[in-house]
Design brief:
Layout lengths: L1 H22 L4 H15 L5 H13 L2 H21 L3 H5 L5 E4 L1 H10 L3 E9 L4 H7 L4 E5 L5 H10 L5 E5 L2 H12 L3 E5 L10 E3 L2 E3 L4 H9 L3 E10 L2 E6 L12 H21 L18
Parallel strand pairs: 1-9, 2-5, 2-8, 3-4, 3-5
Antiparallel strand pairs: 6-7, 8-9
Helix pairs in contact: 1-8, 2-4, 3-4, 10-11
């Protein structure tokens, strides 16, 4: 079994390296457009992931609109994947990313308590470190590492390096995050994953179980929470938005406090998802079984 897993891991690595090698000679725009065209056609045929996405879209939109949006959702995901080999080029082209809400970042800096930056799978969520680097900040990003160690290494090689330190989710990683935040540093992570042992919050017409880690850390250290998004404004061009910070008082992280803070995060993401539903990763089962359409 171990030998088969190792073979599968190597095969996955070979496939990814072949894709990256084939895309690197292309321009950023050509690569992004190719990803959109391929996945807008092939993604809707992807069986279970596509059905999950369609069911989730039906939660918010009429049937015709949900089916119209499905290829666009896959197109955005195709762009994200095919932009990976060019992330360093994006870092060298500041005109690709506009920034909205700089005053909110300045507010966070003025508080001197660090900051908990949270994002959802919107637009191209890999680009936020580039924004922090341009604003003169450095962020420690907690990420969910792929099971395949060879793919994990390759993905990390492709990600932006300026303005960011990546920490894989683990008990050790969480200690590093807490230590960094306690010293007034900035931390960040994607928070729209499903966690079965978290408190449910209202999201898009149902009870979703998303991580309350941001609320827990913010309450423990008295650090502000900043919701962020990397909206795709057209092709491989983006607008980074930093919302007005949520500023909890330092204190005990009771269930009521965690639920209120996590609900504030979910409510902000809901606004952004409804504004650009084609740019969210709908292929997740975030809701309780009884809430599934």
């Amino acid at each position: 079994m171990a030998d088969f897993r190792s073979f599968r891991y190597r095969l996955e690595e070979l496939g990814l390296r072949t894709l990256v090698g084939g895309l690197r000679p292309l321009s950023l725009d050509a690569s992004s457009d190719l990803g959109a065209k391929l996945l807008s056609c092939l993604g809707p045929l992807a069986g279970r992931p596509s059905q999950v996405a369609l069911n989730n879209l039906r939660r918010v939109f009429p049937e015709d609109e949900a089916r119209r949006l499905l290829p666009a959702v896959w197109a955005n995901l195709g762009r994200v994947v095919f932009e990976y080999p060019h992330l360093r080029r994006l870092a060298d082209d500041p005109d690709r990313i506009q920034i909205a809400g700089k005053e909110n970042f300045e507010r966070v800096k003025s508080l001197g308590k660090g900051g908990v930056f949270v994002a959802a799978h919107l637009g191209n969520w890999e680009l936020f470190p580039l924004v922090m680097d341009r604003l003169g900040g450095h962020i420690l990003l907690l990420y969910r590492a792929p099971n395949n160690p060879y793919v994990r290494e390759l993905v990390q090689q492709l990600r932006p390096r300026n303005g960011v330190t990546y920490i894989a989710k683990s008990h050790v990683g969480m200690r590093d995050v807490m230590r960094h935040l306690s010293k007034g540093g900035y931390i960040g992570f994607l928070t729209d994953h499903r966690y079965s042992d978290t408190l449910p919050v209202d999201l898009l017409g149902g009870q979703a179980r998303i991580a309350h880690t941001a609320a827990l850390l913010a309450r423990r250290f008295g650090a502000p929470i900043i919701c962020t998004r990397m909206e795709r404004t057209g092709g491989a061009h983006f607008c980074a938005t930093m919302a007005r910070p949520i500023e909890p008082q330092k204190g005990d992280a009771t269930h009521d406090v965690l639920q209120i803070l996590t609900q504030q995060i979910a409510s902000q993401f809901e606004v952004w998802i409804k504004e650009r539903p084609d740019q969210w990763f709908w292929m997740q089962k975030l809701w309780s079984m009884g809430d599934n359409p």
